[in-house]
Design brief:
Blueprint: E1 4-8, H1 17-30, E2 35-39, H2 45-49, H3 61-66, E3 77-78, E4 84-86, H4 92-100, H5 108-112, H6 116-119, E5 122-126, H7 133-141, E6 144-150, H8 159-169, E7 178-186, H9 191-204, E8 208-214, H10 217-224, H11 229-232, H12 237-253
Parallel strand pairs: 1-5, 1-6, 2-4, 2-5, 6-7, 7-8
Antiparallel strand pairs: 3-4
The structure holds adenosine-5'-triphosphate (ATP) and magnesium ion.
């Protein structure tokens, strides 16, 4: 067994990268898979969404990247949501400079995940929106990129940047490609949303998952409560959409 390592990447802020990592992760775990989430963002939203006290961590992704030969177990936390997580910390913001001088600095995460990838079915990576060392580490470690694409007027604007980054990382990770596109934050009531979704589907075809994640305030409330959506509001449209997405992801990545 070797994990599907999915980088939830888009070089644009606020497109639901973190929400998708968390909600997809807990649903995959719910479906019986072993899931590890990796918070690579100094904002630490993913960690906070799982109710992790980021002020009092013994270890975080920071120590993992500094000591890639030590694996990831020492920094991995088990959660009541059924997923494991390597949390982030605000101190990560300073780590970028510290790591910048290291040889093979883009490959630290890949190296660190060597053992973990034999233990998990899915490892979901949540990098920040900027193209820095953490995003490059995620792209170098990933087996596939899953793109959360916000269904709005400028949906495509950041795609060329993302495609350029995938090209940039090709030397280090030749097979890397976009494996799936998730339409997020869709407001079905507006004709604009419908039109943009149609455009996305005609441009990217089968890459686009059938499931569309609707705008749903429950999805914004859940992390504030430190609870995943499938227990916070199991009947909500958001919870149902992410459950359906997990089923599709499972089918798509089953034999890869
Ligand atoms: N489907 C949704 N409906 C309503 N609110 C949502 C939905 N998805 C995400 N949000 C909210 O939108 C905001 C941005 O989402 P999120 O943090 O997941 O995006 P992100 O791409 O990870 O952002 P960043 O670039 O800052 O890391 C958050 O407040 C989140 O709770
Ligand atoms: Mg985020």
């Amino acid at each position: 067994m070797s994990a599907n390592i999915l980088a939830l990447t888009m070089q644009k802020g606020g497109v639901a990268k973190t929400t998708t990592t968390l909600s997809l992760g807990v649903n995959l775990a719910e479906r019986g898979h072993k899931v590890l989430l990796v918070d690579l963002d100094p904002q630490a939203n993913l960690s906070q969404g799982l109710n992790i006290d980021i002020e009092n961590l013994e270890y975080s992704i920071y120590e993992v990247l500094l000591n890639p030969d030590h694996g990831t177990d020492f920094a991995t936390l088990h959660t009541s949501a059924g997923v494991d997580i390597i949390p982030s910390t605000l101190a990560l913001a300073g780590a970028e400079l510290e790591l910048a001088g290291k040889v093979g600095r883009e490959l630290l995460l890949r190296k660190a995940l060597k053992q973990a990838k034999e233990k998990y079915d899915y490892i979901l990576l949540d990098p920040p929106p900027s193209l820095g060392l953490f995003t490059l580490n995620a792209m170098a470690a990933a087996t596939s990129v899953v793109v959360p694409l916000q269904v709005h007027a400028y949906a495509f604007k950041a795609m060329p940047k993302l495609e350029a980054t995938i090209d940039l990382i090709k030397d280090l990770n030749p097979p890397l490609a976009i494996g799936g596109i998730v339409c997020t934050l869709s407001d079905k009531r507006t004709s604009l949303s419908q039109a943009v979704e149609t455009q996305i589907r005609s441009r990217y075809g089968d890459l686009v998952f059938h499931t569309v994640i609707p705008f749903n305030t429950k999805l914004a409330e859940a992390p504030a409560m430190g609870e995943p959506i499938h227990t916070y509001a199991p009947q909500s449209a958001g919870a149902r959409a992410y459950a359906a997405l997990a089923e599709e992801v499972e089918a798509r990545y089953a034999h890869k």
